[in-house]
Amino acid sequence: MSKNESEKSWRLATQMVRGGTMRTGFGETSEAIFMTSGFRYDSAEAAERRFKNEEPGFVYSRFGNPTVEMFEQRMVLLEGAQAARATATGMAAVNAALMCQLKAGDEVVSARAVFGSCRYIVEDLLPRFGIKTHLIDGTDLTAWERAVNARTKVVFLETPANPTLEVIDLPAVAAIAHKHGARVVVDNVFATPVLQKPLQLGADIVVYSATKHIDGQGRCLGGVVLGSEDFIVNELTPYLRHTGPALSPFNAWVMLKGLETLELRVSRMVESAASLADQLAGHPGLAAPTNVPALLYPGRKDHPQYALVQRQMSAGGNMLAFRPNGGKAGTFRFLNALKLVDISNNLGDSKSLITHPATTTHQRLSLEERARLGIGEDLVRLSVGLEDPRDLVEDIAHALEKAG
Question: What's the number of domains the chain is made of?
Fold first, then answer.
């Protein structure tokens, strides 16, 4: 059995620690960091062959790098994909996954509830190049049926979505898209590859901001795109090669170290998030029930798509959204009263982080559009970290009292 075949037979935890490892002649146990921009050739003929892809090897770190390739191969094993390419950031991954396969005259159908920068690409950037885009309610399968047609090249979505945690039926949407020959691109950041496998649920392409849970400790930026070998090699790679959003070898090494503990960290975060959600539900410091629930957590039975979560996710994740009392002013009082949880727009960190989407990640949307998405002036998004959940409960409960 070859090394590659052995890696595929390993279980998840083993793949995350050892998958894709390439050792030098020094026999290092930790992956080597190849901090080099270029590579030498034994002869002019060898350089020619390598540029023609007639012999294996690296030519320039914008095109490929040994440390970056180790990260890509480990992600391939973890995701169950055929191939992957890493990028400098998560948004570079989203942009490349879309732009590399689209041209003027194509159409894109996207769920309306996506990260603010993803909305910018779909709503503002793509139309500049003659690509028609449609934004729909991702939870409404009838809306997908109406919007996807023979001109649709790509379907794009997040599930769970940022920041309202709505969950989309991936197999159903994939079936609709594939009926018309469209590809399904899924941003799987909130679920992580530990809790949800979009490719197994019908998606064609998966993107991650590796900055989030994969690094998991707020150290550096990175992204990755995964899919079929044909898509990665023939469509994505030329786009990345000539536009240059390359992942730094050092950042790739940090991501490799993050993957070694990803399952452990996500499992602990999920456990804490579920406990926190149960203890916060019904808290008098949360807003009175309206058409927008006061607390949203995919792992709770009162989540609007709880049955769907049970079918396509192995757990509810580490993200919560809730609404303190007192509107925007009360929510700001709540945020400013937190002593343990940090105000930050990042997520997936070992430290618990909280943000106010209406004034940060989704501030560019109109008031009407935010209301349509359920992103009120009182909504906060909480990324639960690795602190003792009892300390988190005490900190949040105290701050809710301050919110009034």
Answer: 2
Extended beta strands in 88-222, E state: 107-111, 132-136, 152-158, 183-187, 205-209
Domain limits at 121? 3-260
Rounded to whole angstroms, the Cα distance separating 294 from 376 reads: 11
* 294 lies in the same domain as 242: no
DSSP assignment letter at 235: I
Pairing of strands 342-343, 353-355: parallel
Range 136-166 burial, b when 16+ CB lie within 10 A, else e: bbbbeeebbeebbeeebbbbbbbbbbbbbbb
Strand partners, 133: 108
DSSP 8-state class, residue 218? S
Are the CB atoms for 392 and 280 separated by under 8 Å?
no
**Could you read off the pLDDT of 198-257 as tens digits, one per residue?**
999 999 999 999 999 999 999 999 999 999 999 999 999 999 999 999 999 999 999 999
- Three-state DSSP class for residue 390: helix
The model's pTM is 0.95
Tokens coding 338: 């937190």
